[in-house]
Specification:
heterotrimer, A alpha+beta (253), B alpha/beta (947), C mainly alpha (308), A: alpha+beta, Alpha-Beta Plaits, two-stranded antiparallel ribbon, 7 helices, C: 308 residues, mainly alpha, Formate dehydrogenase/DMSO reductase fold, 10 helices
Chain lengths: 253, 947, 308
């Protein structure tokens, strides 16, 4: 059934991504690929893998943006441009348009935890859900002809055959910069909810009305070096004065 | 309506987990390789591993595609077409080893220096060095000369350790972290994990880098410095700190040579050297009794300034006085360096003031008594929580040695070396220069059919230790340790092919390379190097470099130029040891090493290089590889790892030694050692006691711990060498007042570069060229998702970096009317390349840059002919010559640091001109034939059988 | 958006087919004539061919039947259901016309209503996508319905001339419908060209508070499914030219031809036949162009992440 759950899901499992610390290393991107290509559903295929038009299905990709300050808050040294690495995967929206457009019932949002999934056995590969998603979170696997998307590693987070500490999405577990956090955003006392509250976690494209579960923590404000308290003014006695000071210091040691 | 549960939630991941060590870069993380149906299901970071604590980067996560890449070599290859054609015949290992043995045997019998054996991306230098020493050729080194020898040489000669992977910021305590010129590094994951810790604690992270990518992107402050001027920035910070008296005098007096007296006797052979007593101990001026006494005398109050007369009548001053006088000079004032560095005076002042504030106003203390090497007991560790890290951005300039020394000097001045919150040494470092050997390779050190009398690489203590013949000519093929590059402590691999081709200083017969892509991205002047490899002697019709043996696992560009190819395994099919004798994985708190083991068996006719080398050693009957009856000592590399002893009880692995496997560091051979490592997750870790964890350079508890572990046989404390006497010895030689005298051709260069106090000069290339004609810098950055050239054969990683644009500052784009996708000519004094551009604002306004080693030669790396890597990807290497442009006297110096011979990759100066649109970058080289018939799949569905 | 030929052919053909079905369902052609019988068969054939074409872009067409299940939430599913339901009255009407030469009001009118409903569902598939702002307007279904009606009338005019009925009446009706459709379409396009994007790189990244956001590096260098599917871009100049072609061939030429037909239809059958054919062919080419532009000019919100 591609209607969304009638009531708010009791849990809202999702990711919190910290743009202040993501260094754009693509660890999450590749680890996601290797976990999921042998896991949930069809393999994540790659076309022309060693040739000219190489491309593949990825459930998580890192874009890199350049932001040039224009009014508003200056982050960093005045006027300087900055680079922001921006990981993007399914946001597991509360009002997921990708679910409601699905003609077959393959796309669904789980009533328990809010994870948006595709039942690949039911997917006809029409691609409409990918059109409906403003975030580009869904990608067709061209070999299998079915729609792939982030499952929040549902085959990890509930997997009783792996250690409890590892029951988190592959991208979160592998992130070297600790820029990715997983948890229940419906629970205001969860670590992720607290992080969102403290850091002003934001929705992407709120105007699309999708109510994403995943949140992004914006880069923190920076204090320019040039605004540091200046060091004491120069002692006009130059090197001589310096050596006198040194002597004084030596006596105190 | 509740959707029914449609997912199998608890499928077992795999049949088995095998824990080994990653080799997708030099970081050496622990990995869990999940094996299912005999194939790799998944590779993840090992949570218990001290390096990565469970995390894993993009490269490590792409191990599956590296392991199964079609570019893997399948069997030994004998060249059948001309060099460079890529035409080979597959042969048996017996035949391959017989050929290699024949070539090597003849050279060893006749003239062993005619073997040049150099290793590239290698983590088994303790074996390869030992092998080369037993073979007896002086021509051995790894690739540090074109990598980051400035880092190592300047670090060890100043503080007894280096950034690189031999030390680390105290991530848990530092409050201000300043990083110079690092995009992605050997310590790839630890740096990312460390930055995350800083961010969590609200510590400030300053990045100094012309380009704002990677780590710099998340820095609190980015200083987009002009390339090659970092040293000037650092000295300006030093100027500000001295002026404001923000230095740790107590620390300087105790741990550095600041008080050591420097002889002031211009024109004599001892001028500028330390005044020493009869035992060679440096002297200081004791100000209470007004006597000159040896450094370290109990209760002495040693002066930091003031001229004194020595017992022999000569005068001397404490080295610190020279230091202070030099850097207090106005030439280092922020406003006087702002133009050259491109950094505003306010920012420099702000940086200096932050360093001072954090070091002194936010000092930390750990209540832990510890004994120092002078017999004094301290009640606590005092920490100056300012830490630094630097890498190629400083190192790969021709002023990189001095720049790195300047950075270490800054650290010592504020008392921030190996203290809580500062930069911390990782065992077995620190080690003073005196604990390192001197280099060997002069005529008296080798001869036919005998081992070298000592190790190839080391630290010359002065010009007397140079590897030169009586006429002053180099004795090594790469001219390391000659007047050209006196402190080339890692050799100069990038000069080997050019020198061998020119027969300067002599020709070689066999060039034996391991994992070094010298016919492509690891060489300057790639096209020239290719010509040298293809060039034949007109008289004999033989190649100028007659025989080339190459070992690699993949069909790199270099393979096409080998005469004999010894195919290596992938990193998951081999044994390796990450040894304390080599480049260990220690942390500041723990001594660590690790192994690799074959978690998968090769499905091709390939053998691990190290085992092949040991086999060759036995076939050549090299001492150390055969017993006195000529029987091989070691069956293979794992056997060597377990049974080889460098000194009694000291072997490649420190863990699980002794017959019961309960000894660490020193201990008898344990036949079960590798099994014990595997059981332990393929690593070993021994914690350093808390009383030994800091101030290791002067901590008696640490020194004793080091002796127990076998780092050295007696304590080897380090006195930080702010003033570097060895450098002054070279200057005296250049002045002609001290033996041996430097050749006249080299004198000016040595006088300029060998300042015993850290010094900044314009990079040599830049200084020689017309700055108006070549107004721009062009540099590369190492991407986080690709390690050098090892990544393009990887179906996943190559999607991230399929081709590389030239990033051009926005202001320049506007000036030249360039938009993304336009083409330009990039022109250096040496060559020009045509490439596609992309705009960037967050970059130094005079700096062009691109990602490192993405461009590939058509036909290499198992890629299709029209692969974007070859069509639009490019290298800056084509613009860089191994020689600088001629000076007025016609002399062409090598494009290297004059002190260490470090390849000056980042000195490149260029201009750009808009070009016509194109489909191909230039230069473009003829396609290489693919060695081996591996078919290219048009589609990959890895893991589909488990769906 | 990527102008996929299968989808362009589908919407164009099924639009014509359903439009023709509407005209036939209203009983505007004489059921006893051969031309009308052929028209019935052609309407069903065009609808069928369109639907077949629409399955060509499916990854797993063998499961297409599953698309009928989610009519409560999905416009695509509704379209599928409606298209099948619509076949009942259409086949019934066709049967009574072809076999019995009769017109039945019940299946006829039901067929007309359901045909329009199916076209409406098709239009709503696009209209419902907030991620494609150009489509997300009531003008989209209005255009689809008017174009279907106009196209049906153009085809019907040809059959009327061929003996099926009052060619002049249908030609005039067709001309009026075409003008109405192109007026609606012009309004649609003006809306598309002047709309202020609700989503921008700044809202897509949340980084607007810092400054102006520009893509610096793609996540993967080469094209991917998203850029193939949603990243199609057409130069403004090129689009304007194609728009002109669409208006002339899809609107102006057929209107003139139809009016000529209405006037001279009775005079010269040869000339009339030529004009009727010109009107239809020109209209089809115009409509294919219009549909191509419908996709090619629409910008998807995801392109905020791709500099598109």
């Amino acid at each position: 059934m591609t209607s969304l759950p009638a009531l708010p899901t009791p849990k809202k499992l999702g990711l919190v991504i910290d743009l202040d610390v993501c260094v754009g290393c693509h660890a999450c991107v590749v680890n996601c690929k290797e976990w999921n290509t042998g896991g949930y559903g069809a393999a994540l295929s790659d076309q022309d893998p060693y040739g000219a038009d190489v491309s593949g299905a990825w459930l998580n990709r890192i874009h890199t943006f350049e932001v040039v300050p224009q009014g508003g808050e200056i982050v960093g040294e005045a006027g300087e441009a900055r680079i922001v690495h921006f990981p993007k995967s399914c946001l597991h929206c509360e009002d997921a348009p990708c679910v409601t457009v699905c003609p077959t019932g393959a796309s669904y949002k789980r009533a328990d935890d809010g994870i948006v999934l595709v039942d690949e056995d039911m997917c006809i590969g029409c691609g409409l859900c990918a059109w409906a998603c403003p975030y580009g979170a869904r990608e067709m696997d061209l070999a299998a002809g079915v729609m792939k998307k982030c499952t929040l590693c549902i085959d990890r987070i509930y997997n009783e055959t792996i250690a409890e500490i590892d029951r988190q999405p592959a991208c979160v577990r592998t992130c070297p910069a600790n820029a990715r956090h997983f948890g229940d955003l419906a629970d205001p006392s969860s670590a992720v909810s607290i992080m969102v509250a403290e850091r002003g976690g934001m929705d992407l494209m709120p105007e699309q009305g999708t109510r994403p579960v995943n949140k992004y923590l914006p880069p923190r404000a920076r204090k320019p070096l040039a605004s540091s308290t200046p060091l004491p003014k120069e002692d006009t006695t130059g090197a001589t004065g310096f050596f006198a000071w040194l002597d004084d210091m030596l006596d105190r040691i | 309506m509740t959707p029914r549960e449609r997912v199998a939630l608890s499928r077992p991941v795999a049949d088995e987990v095998r824990k080994t060590t990653c080799y997708m870069c030099a970081c050496r993380c622990g990995i869990n390789v999940h094996i299912k149906d005999g194939k790799i299901r998944y590779i993840e970071g090992n949570r218990d591993h001290p390096v990565n604590k469970g995390v894993l980067c993009a490269k490590g996560s792409a191990g599956i595609m590296q392991h199964y890449a079609p570019a893997r070599l399948r069997a030994p290859l004998k060249r059948v077409g001309p060099r460079g054609s890529g035409k080979f015949q597959e042969i048996s290992w017996d035949e391959a080893l017989a050929i290699a043995t024949g070539w090597l045997e003849e050279v060893r019998n006749t003239d062993p220096k005619k073997l040049a054996f150099f290793t590239g991306r290698d983590q088994s230098q303790s074996l390869t060095g030992f092998w080369a020493q037993q073979y007896g050729t002086p021509n051995y080194a790894a690739h540090g000369g074109f990598c980051s020898v400035n880092m190592a040489a300047a670090g060890i000669m100043t503080i007894g350790g280096a950034f690189w992977e031999f030390g680390a910021p105290d991530w848990d305590r530092t409050k201000l972290f300043v990083m110079f010129g690092v995009a992605e590094d050997h310590d790839s994951n630890p740096i990312k994990m460390g930055i995350a810790k800083l961010k969590k604690r609200g510590a400030r992270f300053v990045s100094v880098n012309p380009v704002r990518t990677g780590y710099s992107a998340v820095a609190d402050n980015w200083i987009g410095i002009r390339p090659g001027t970092d040293g000037l920035l650092i000295l300006s910070v030093v100027h500000e700190l001295l002026k404001a008296r923000k230095i740790d005098v107590d620390y300087l007096v105790r741990y550095s040579n600041a008080t050591w007296l420097v002889i002031d006797a211009p024109g004599t052979a001892d001028h500028g050297l330390f005044a020493r007593d009869g035992e060679g101990k440096a002297l200081v001026h004791e100000t209470v009794t007004e006597r000159v006494v040896p450094f370290g005398s109990k209760g002495a109050r040693a002066a930091l300034s003031g001229r004194v007369q020595l017992d022999d009548g000569r005068f001397a001053v404490p080295s610190f006085q020279l230091l202070a006088e030099k850097y207090l000079d106005k030439q280092y004032a922020p406003e006087n360096v702002a133009a050259e560095t491109g950094v505003s005076a306010d920012t420099i002042r702000g940086l200096a003031s932050e360093i001072a504030r954090v070091a002194f106003d936010e000092a930390i203390s750990i209540d832990q008594p510890w004994p120092d090497t002078n017999g004094e007991r301290h009640h606590a560790y005092t920490g100056r929580p300012v830490s630094f890290h630097a890498m190629r951005g400083l190192s790969a300039h021709s002023n990189g040695f001095q720049t790195t020394r300047a950075l270490h000097m800054l650290q010592v001045l504020i008392g921030a070396i190996d203290c809580p919150g500062g930069f911390r040494f990782e065992p077995p470092y620190p080690k003073p220069v005196e604990a390192h050997p001197t280099p060997h390779g002069r005529a008296e050190h080798f001869g036919s059919n005998k081992p070298m009398s000592g190790p190839h690489l080391g630290f010359p203590r002065g010009p007397e230790d140079l590897l030169i013949d009586p006429d002053g000519n180099p004795t090594r093929i790469d001219k390391a340790f000659s007047w050209d590059a006196p402190l080339a402590v890692h050799g100069a691999m990038h000069m080997v092919i050019a020198n061998a081709h020119a027969g300067d200083p002599y020709p070689v017969d066999v060039l034996f390379l391991y994992m070094a892509n010298m016919a492509w991205n690891s060489s300057m002047n790639t096209a020239g190097v290719i010509r040298m490899l293809e060039d034949k002697d007109e008289k004999t019709g033989e190649y100028r470099i007659p025989k080339i043996i190459y070992s690699d696992a993949y069909a790199s560009e270099m393979v096409a130029y080998a005469d004999l190819v010894l195919p290596d395994t992938t990193y998951l099919e081999r044994y390796d040891c990450i040894s304390l004798l080599d480049r260990p994985i220690s942390e500041p708190d723990a001594v660590q090493d690790a192994i690799r083991w074959p978690v998968l068996q090769p499905d091709r006719d390939v053998r691990p290089f190290q085992s092949v080398l040991i086999d060759l050693g036995a076939r050549l009957k090299l001492p150390g590889f055969v017993d006195n009856r000529g029987k091989p000592i070691y069956a293979d590399y794992p056997d060597y790892i377990v049974r080889h002893e460098r000194r009694p009880g000291i072997g490649p692995l420190a863990g699980f030694r002794g017959s019961n496997g309960d000894r660490a560091g020193r201990g008898a051979v344990n036949r079960d050692q590798i099994k014990r490592y595997i059981e332990n997750g393929s690593f070993f870790s021994a914690h350093i006691p808390m009383e030994a964890q800091f101030f290791k350079h002067a901590n008696q508890a640490y020194q004793e711990f080091g002796v127990r572990m076998g780092f050295f046989d007696a304590p080897k404390p380090v006195i930080f060498q702010l003033y570097q006497e060895t450098l002054q010895k070279f200057r005296l030689s250049a002045e002609g007042v001290r033996e041996p005298h430097a050749p006249h051709t080299h004198r000016q260069r040595i006088l300029e570069a060998f300042d015993p106090l850290p010094h900044w000069y314009r990079p040599l290339g830049e200084a020689l060229l017309d700055r108006a004609e070549f107004p721009l810098h062009a540099i590369t950055q190492r991407p986080a998702a690709m390690y050098h050239s090892w990544g393009s054969m990887n179906a996943w990683l190559r999607q991230i970096h399929t081709r590389n644009p030239l990033y051009v500052p926005g202001s320049l784009c506007d000036q030249l009317n360039l938009a993304d996708g336009d083409w330009v000519w990039v022109i250096s004094h040496h060559n020009r390349i045509k490439v596609e551009v992309a705009r960037m604002e967050a970059v130094n306004s005079s700096t062009l840059w691109t990602w490192n080693a993405i461009g590939k030669r058509e036909g290499a790396w198992g890629l299709g002919r029209d692969a974007p890597e070859a069509r639009k990807g490019f290298l800056l290497n084509h613009l860089i010559n191994e020689l600088l442009p001629p000076r007025e006297d016609g002399m062409r110096w090598s494009n290297s640091d004059p002190v260490t011979g470090q390849a000056a990759w980042y000195d490149l100066r260029v201009r750009i001109e808009k070009a016509d649109p194109a489909e191909r970058s230039e230069p473009h080289f003829p396609a290489l034939a693919q060695p081996g018939p591996e078919p290219h799949p048009s589609e990959l569905r890895y893991g589909q059988e488990w769906a | 958006m990527h102008p996929a030929p299968s989808i362009i052919i589908f919407t164009t053909l099924s639009g014509l087919g359903y439009g023709l079905a509407v005209v036939l369902g209203l009983g505007l052609l004489d059921p006893a004539t051969l031309a009308t019988k052929i028209a019935h068969v052609l309407a069903i054939a065009m609808i069928g061919a369109g639907l077949m074409s629409s399955t060509l872009h499916l990854g797993n067409p063998q499961r297409a039947w599953r698309a009928l299940s989610q009519w409560r939430s999905s416009w695509l599913s509704r379209e599928g259901v409606m298209s099948i339901v619509t076949f009942v009255p259409l086949l019934w009407s066709a049967w009574v016309c072809v076999i019995e030469s009769r017109y039945l009001a019940l299946p006829g009118l039901a067929g007309s209503v359901l045909s329009l409903a199916t076209v409406f569902c098709t239009a709503m598939i696009y209209t419902s996508l907030k991620s494609v702002q150009a489509w997300h307007t009531p003008l989209t279904p209005a255009c689809y319905l008017l174009f279907a009606a106009a196209g049906g009338l153009v085809v019907a005019s040809l059959f009327a001339f061929a003996g099926g009925g009052n060619a002049s009446l249908l030609a005039v009706l067709a001309a009026v419908a075409l003008m109405a459709a192109w007026i609606a379409k012009t309004a649609w396009r003006r809306n598309m060209l002047t709309l202020v994007p609700i989503s921008t790189p700044e809202t897509a990244t949340g980084l607007g508070a810092i400054g102006k956001v520009r893509l610096f590096e793609r996540p993967h260098v080469m094209e991917n499914y998203l850029t193939h599917e949603m990243g199609f871009k057409i130069a403004r100049k090129h689009a304007a030219k194609l728009w002109g072609i669409a208006v002339v061939l899809g609107g102006a030429v057929p209107v003139v031809a139809l009016l000529v037909l209405a006037i001279v239809g009775q005079v010269s059958s040869a000339i009339a036949a030529m004009f009727a054919c010109v009107a239809l062919l020109s209209h089809i080419i115009g409509m294919l162009t219009e549909r191509w532009l419908f996709f090619a000019e629409a910008r998807h919100a995801v392109m905020n992440y791709y500099n598109g």
